[in-house]
Amino acid sequence: MGDLPKGDFSAPSLHTSMLQDVVPSAASDALLYSYKRSFNGFAAKLTKKEAQKLRGEGVVSVFLSQKKQLHTSRSWDFMGFSSRKVERSVIESDIVVGMLDTGIWPESESFNDTGFGPIPAKWKGTCQKSSNFTCNKKIIGARYYRADGEFSPDDFKSPRDAKGHGSHTASTAADILAAFDDAIADGVDIISLSVGGSFASDYFDDSIAIGAFHSMKNGILTSNSAGNGGPDPSSIVNVSPCSLSVAASTIDRKFVTRVKLGNGEIYEGNSINTFDLKGKMYPFIYGGDAPNISEGFTSEDSRYCLPGSLNETLVKGKIVFCEYSSDDEGTTEAGAVGAVFLDEGNKDYAFSYPLPLANLNMDDGRTVLSYLSTTETPTATIYKSIEENNQFAPFVVSFSSRGPNPIAADILKPNLTAPGVNILAAWSEATTVTETEDDTRVVPYNIISGTSMSCPHATGAVAYVKSFHPTWSPAAIKSALMTTAFPMTSENNIDSEFAFGAGHINPALAAQPGLIYDAGEIDYIAFLCGQGYSPKYLQLITGNNSSCSEETNGTVWDLNYPSFALSATPGKSITGVFHRTVTNVRSAVSTYKAVVKATPGLISQVQPSVLSFNTLGQKQSFVVTVRAEVGNSMKSGSLIWDDGLHQVRSPIVGYASLIK
């Protein structure tokens, strides 16, 4: 997706003419979208062979419009960001956030516009009203996108959310680019996007990275969810250096679901259960003892309660014990009253189910299985979930995607972490709590987990910082959030910075960071030059005469980024030299001293080690030399610029990488 051509041009005509060389008789029918408001590109319905013909002179990239995955209260108080305590900006009501998601449920109390002033004059967008959707002074605009024109029976031909994800927080690459194109032109200040691919892609084969680049050019920061592919290494999917990539961490709340057996023993399980069995004891049966033999299933199938594997006659009206899974479909379709699962998976987050259900750990599960096998008439009940304090919070949840960055190994991702576990927020009333037909609960609010939940928290923090500093660049705002984040350690996060980046977001402090690491289009172009992109390619992207030379061919270590990462071949050591520049944004006259912290095997030197400022906006440059004896492990530390009032903290990471 390149920059817009200079002067007047007709995007549909240009794009149709390009398609005529590929599909001469059906160019107009093939064209789905023309991106023409903020950047130049199009989406078309083509065969693989036809798409290949488009590659060549004047074309940045051609890639498949793949579907993106959804990366699916008190969390603000947990971050120390109570609305009653934080400093407020006089222009906060002029900040416009563009949410790219599955839609919105406008009647939710979360979107009540009472007390809101007039719509910002800068807003150029529209509200695609319909018989079932209107905007207000809080939802000031809304659009919906469907490149293929196909709608499911349960979907709405409007921005209304039929799924739930959007209200709690574009589905294809084509739709996402169309949404970016409009959002930039409509005048948003921030773009929040809680979706991503199943794996990271090259920057200009990734619709989200392309959109983030053009957003950055227009002064808009894109806030992205990191992904839900953790704890696998290099599972992070949104890795653009222009974006803020957000991991998910816990808050000081967890949910416990208790199971009581007929012998009086009580076990604590994991789930979010709102069903009330009122303490009634029900017959309790082991799934392995109720195979659906008539359909060819054996006890080896039914022990896992797989769909179709349970004998409905034996299971209906009972609580079922299942092994090594928490797929409720089999128990629900068989008419079970409830289910207890022996679940060896992670217990740091919980799901809702369409029936009373509790996931027990291995030890408790085996004890319960023993009770079933040694008791003539076993019974059990499942209680409603209760809330308990999570004393170890915050820590990065197991599902949150991890680094290292699979595209640019020495750009640290994720950037930071934010609350993304057991988050209560608005939910679409067009679906149920679990989004299944077997569930009859329709609610205005729901509790779910995912980096899709953490991303909007970070977006809110971006809006807060932007309200104090409306002229700051996207990089400056990202720097402020990263350098003021609460430090986290490997004690509760074994993947360290690859899990939490710079740390846990601290919005109240981010508005006054002291110093910022700033960067703009020219800096990212230099970075891309260093990554091997050709000048001709970059000129298509930028729309100017960008070129790569010794002066502009920047190494990854020279991007003015608020973290320091270097990778080496396993078993080797490496020395990296990082050039950085900071801008004074708080006290006109100030002196900052460098404080370096590191684990054994990581040595960092800073020159100069003292930075003195005489005016606001003054810049000072320094060099950090890092030597890492990585072996086969990861070494981490931090550089803190300290003036006695501000601690401007950046992580330092050295690690063994398999990426060439």
UniProtKB/TrEMBL annotation:
Residues 173-503 form the Peptidase S8/S53 domain. GO terms for biological process: proteolysis. Residues 12-71 form the Inhibitor I9 domain. SUPFAM superfamilies: Subtilisin-like. The keyword DNA-binding does not apply. The active site is at 101 (charge relay system), 165 (charge relay system), 452 (charge relay system). The keyword Signal applies. Residues 558-653 form the Subtilisin-like protease fibronectin type-III domain. InterPro entries: Peptidase_S8/S53_dom, Peptidase_S8/S53_dom_sf, Peptidase_S8_Ser-AS, Peptidase_S8_subtilisin-rel, Peptidases_S8_3, S8pro/Inhibitor_I9, S8pro/Inhibitor_I9_sf, SBT. Pfam families: fn3_6, Inhibitor_I9, Peptidase_S8. PROSITE patterns: SUBTILASE (PS51892), SUBTILASE_SER (PS00138). Keywords: Hydrolase, Protease, Serine protease, Signal. It comes from the Eukaryota. One of its GO terms (molecular function) is serine-type endopeptidase activity. One of its GO terms (cellular component) is extracellular region. Belongs to the peptidase S8 family. This is Subtilisin-like serine endopeptidase family protein. It comes from Theobroma cacao.
